[in-house]
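Consider what follows.

. . .
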Amino acid sequence: MINVIDLLKENKEVSNFKVNRLNTETYELFFVHDNLETVRATETKQTSVTVYVNHKKFTGDYTFTQEVNDSKEVLIDKINNAISNAMLINNKAYTLPLDDTTDETIESNFTDYSYKDLATKIYNVLKNCVAKSKAKLNATEIFLYKKIREVENSQGLKKKETSYECMIETIPTYDISKTKSVELYECFSFSNFDEKNIEAEIMQSLKDVTSRARAKKPDYKINCPVLLRAKELNEIVRNITNELNYSSLYSNVNLYNKGQNIQDGALYDTFDIKALGQIEGATYSRLFDQDGVSLDSQKLVTKGVIKSFYGSNQYAQYVHKKATGNLPLLEVKKGSYSERTLKSEPYLECVSFSGLQVDIASDYIGGEVRLANYFDGNKVHPVTGISISAKFSDVLKTLKLSKKIVVKEDYKGPNLALLSNFNIF
């Protein structure tokens, strides 16, 4: 593969450049029921090249992909095309991160196993879960990844990191009869092998698909608080923190300002939110972002009050703030309530959405619920075909968070959130 950096340095019209590389080794297993159908090992290389051109008072940029088989002539044409396109971009001038080097591995216990041994251990956990349930896994795919990321720029920055990940895709299935069944889709990732965490995820999915087989559209009015799981709580928190990015601040489209209380009049728990680069077990953990900016952590919200913003090298310069980098992870402080307490009164636990919708600008939260567990105070009833909606600011005031913390791909925080003031229909 031709070293594109040599060609970039030779071209006098290139003001600066950045090269991002990703090398991925994959070990893949495909199961149908209990039968291992296919084992596959792959290796892929991806190279992304960004050309920067300073023209007048502006900095323009354009990104292209270097293919493995690109000849010298093809790469020269791509660079010249990138220069022409960058000249059309009139961004306010900015500089790239300066000389810095690192070569580190993000901690993971995957390094304690061979691919085959680790995949076998993971599958055995899944098999043991199925043995405890009336539901089954109709198809399962296990992907083990080793990823090596590199970024190099024209200012002497050269960084490299190695990370590990496992992704499991499976179809929990419950047979209602010999000819009729219901299915759900389950996909989750992790970067540390923890048998208990995998078992908890799979057992919950088997329990959920069993509920799906019994679920009916209610012919009665439901009026109670709504219980959201970690996935949807993460969606809420991400919508909040999206407003705290330097790019939103620079463009004057941010809906929250520093010092603002987003839970004014809160009755119970308030949000403490951090954005950060690494969390043990989270697959989105990074040492640096795509520009090579080292990632640490930034407190964004404390007791429901906006404390700071975060963002990339480019927009940090525009708003005259420290570059935190594009922090990929969110951490939410644990709440005050046990799961038992949260489930002691009537609630609607939302298991599966067509998509939770959060629109801060219109002060809206809601969505179509495909599967939920309704507890009427005495018994749990699986229900389907309902929707929820509310004013976002109204539900934030009623927030109750669980004490139990879970780690997902890009999130660490409470596994449950109880919210009131929803209209359920």
User: Anything to note?
Assistant: The chain has two domains: 4-214, 226-424. The chain has nine helices and 24 strands. The mean pLDDT is 97. Residues 172 and 205 are 7 Å apart (CA to CA).
